[in-house]
Amino acid sequence: MTKALFTNTSLLTRSMLKRDRIKLSIWIIMLVFFTLIIPPAFDELYPTDEALQAIAETMRNPAMTAMVGPGYGLDNYNIGAMMGHQMLLFTAIGVALMSIFLITRHTRADEEEGRIEMILSLPVGRLSNLGAATILSVIANVSLALIVGFGLYALGMDSMPLGPSLLYGTALGAVGIFFTGVTILFAQLSSTPRGALSFSFGVLGISYIMRAIGDVSNEALAVASPLGLILRTEVFVNNYWWPAIVTIAVGTAIGALGFYLSAARDLGAGILPAKPGRRHASRFLQSPLGLALRLQRTSIIVWIIGLFMLAVMYGSIFGDLEMFFEDNEIIQQMLPPSVGFSFAEQFVSVILSIVAILSLVAALIMLLRLKGEEKKNRTEHIYSCAVSRTNVMGAYFSISVFTAIVTLLISVIGLWAASYSVMDVPMAFGLVFKAGFVYLPAMLCILGFANLLLGYLPKATSLSWVIVFYSFVVAYFGQLLNFSDWAKFITPFGHIPNIPMEEVNVITSLVLVGLGAVFSYLGFIGYNKRDIQG
């Protein structure tokens, strides 16, 4: 009976692999490339033991602990220890995202679009599709683990031998398998792909926040997070395998529960019942803006809460910065002189650049929802009424701009409020506000470019995500990788000054806003002229 549930799973796996071969290849290539370029960069930046020990001292800072995880091997820091400590967490988040998108696309999204109903009309088992999606995700994560492991070893660095390098890759694969299981479960609980993604992203966000708080103050809380647990491998130093094994085991158990629920539920329904709506729609809901806002309000609320919590978490560690830096002569020698500015003021710009990019991610999701509605043929029902394309696109673009502004504002408030409560000499709200909202022109420029692609080349909207990813690399790793000025200026974020050390260039800000306005205007023209995709 159990075997019948998985009839022809191998055929479906091959079909999915063929369907996703390009997307999966891009994900794996990006993650591998991003991993393998870092150790040589570390080796070039820190060529001596003295330089390595100097950077090791910065890792004892609670702020850095909250950001990248607890330091280990700091007394004898080397390139391998630095790689495991500073890079494993962020790469693991990328692997988790790959698994979440992959499982959602082949389960709940296909179910909503009617593909699974067609598949089940063929001689396949009830769980064959879910089994094939799971196998595909496992293949992707195992392949990534092996390529990363052997790739790190192939770099030929003494501090990264074969065994620990494979452990690094296994740790990444373990996180991917864990979130494969999590997404399988939420694909059964939720009745929509949006719900499955939101719940899975929620687990990922909560895992990061639990890890950050736990790494600073509570070990048990950190270990309860899959991201915190995987950092306990202490790869390239102590090389503990058990955290990776436990992570895989827990993810497998969660996925098994998802399989059980999938066999029990009705096709097209979720275990969690959908909340019934009102019998009659309000006048606002009958407008394009009201409908778009109603469809995305839950996502907007989740992003606002998540970014606020993240900002509060980072703000709460500002009270320890001054004491840490003032008592550390090595770090004072490393930091470039910034006369008249406290260490907290120098650090706030780094934090807010990351927050601004995350706010941009939220805004882009709201804007590109129009593309998803179009692919599912839902916009045709709207255009059958007396509604213009300009109003529909304008609704989604307005919501995206609103999301960018509100999430950024809430994050600034959260960061300032938390830092105010822990600092002896708090930063002024105006300074934090300025340091955060100086990034808004760059955000609007990228949103305008995404709107332009949506108007003329909807299939190329993924380019906007490439810009966001590159902006994150520039903002977070630009100094580390020693990017040249031209490489930084490719992204709008490369034109933003570090407040308060640098002054705002009003002309540059106006140019970015102007470009965003031109891009978005051209996008409206293109959307009104092109054919609606089916």
Task: Throw out a few tags for this protein.
73% helix; 534 residues; 23 helices; single chain; mainly alpha; globular
Number of helices: 23
CA gyration radius, whole angstroms: 24 Å
Q: In sequence order, what are the helices and strands, one letter per element? A: HHHHHHHHHHHHHHHHHHHHHHH
Low-confidence stretches: none
Mean pLDDT: 84
Classify the beta-strand content into a percent band: under 5%
| Alpha-beta classification | mainly alpha
DSSP summary, beta strand count: 0
Largest sheet: none
Helix content: over 70%
What oligomeric assembly is this protein in? single chain
Global morphology:
globular
Task: Give structural notes.
There is one protein chain. The chain contains 23 helices and no strands. It has helices spanning 9-36, 38-45, 49-58, 62-68, 79-112, 115-120, 128-154, 162-189, 193-217, 219-223, 226-231, 242-264, 288-315, 321-326, 329-334, 343-375, 379-383, 389-422, 429-437, 440-456, 462-477, 485-489, 506-529. It is mainly alpha-helical and 534 residues long. The two termini are 39 Å apart. Helix 2 (38-45) runs antiparallel to helix 5 (79-112) and helix 18 packs antiparallel against helix 23.
